[in-house]
Amino acid sequence: MYHLTLKTEQIMMAARFNSTISKNVTIAKKFVLDKHFNGLPKRTDIKLVEETLPQIQNGEFLTEAVYLSVDPYIRAYQPLTKLGRVMMCLQIAKVIESNSEKFPIGTYVVGDYGWRTHTISCEKSFGEKVMGWKLPPFGTLPLSVGLGMLGLTGNTAYFGLLDICQPKANETVVVSGAAGAVGSHVGQIAKIKGCKVIGIAGSDDKGKWLTNELGFDHFINYKEPNILEKLKQFAPNKVDCYFDNVGGELSSNVMRCMNKFGRISVCGAITAYNSNPADLPKATLVQGMMAIQQLKMEGFIVTTFFPRWMEGIEQNLKWLQEGKLKYRETITDGFENTFQAFVDMLQGKNFGKALVKV
Questions:
Q1: CB under 8 Å, gap of 24 or more: what pairs does 126-135 form?
Q2: Which of 5, 98, 171, 174 is deepest in the core (most CB within 10 A)?
Q3: Are residues 315 and 352 in the same domain?
Q4: Domain that holds residue 44
Q5: 88-98 pLDDT per residue, tens
Q6: What pLDDT is attached to residue 10?
């Protein structure tokens, strides 16, 4: 009887030991770049691999992805990404194991972790060498807004419009890519500032959303042939501010319609992102228009504003709580579907913010 009991205890102790070992071994899944994109990205350009993570050390914490952000800049930066590197993106992640008093278990963070399920971070480098921040409390709003209106997307709209375009009441603001996460947000901030807003997007359904729900004054479908005529019709006093997400001939047409001393905030050039390097789209020269109308065009990367990061989040949260901002999310379920969500976003199939729920 004694022998049986001892053996039973040994088995139980061994089971507890094995459980501890397996708990401390984490297998992370990640998508890495296998081939540089040529035109529209293909599934064979990336590879899903697994990585065994080490045990966390003092000052470190382990996170598990909850939401991944899918954004156009991922495509723009891809040519600069080395093969074998994890596909870039911000994600909302939950701390599931911690040796850091600053990041206890259960803390939600936004981290520049990329397309991966689990990540180890060091409290000393988090927010410095690795872009990231603790997710502030949003009240009844869902966690996902921390990647949208209350995250990098919202700050892109906030700083890109207000600091660069500096819109004034009664001015006319044009936004391209207006039904995307940034563009839809920009237009609403312009309305808050008392501006007339014209949104440009790729479908009439998006146009109805912009005008009927978000309060845009006018909508132009960029797939129609009469864009310049529509701009002149909707902006008889010309355009004062242009928030440019797309580039190309569309942007040249907007600049033809701008007032003297107009301001242009260049956020992106999605028109060219999926083009082959040898076959980039051609557009009318803008230097003449800029000189004659004395326009100001400025490109920006939102991380430049990182020292003021919480300013944008806090103001956007206030506007949301006051009902002055509305948002829409296109959420794809499943980490394995991240690539498809990425391609769908590049093809304009999303309304508002594109996310993957891991």
A1: 131/90, 131/303, 131/306, 133/109, 133/309, 133/310, 134/103, 134/107, 134/108, 134/109, 134/110, 135/92, 135/108, 135/109, 135/110
A2: 174
A3: no
A4: 27-147+329-357
A5: 999 999 999 99
A6: 38
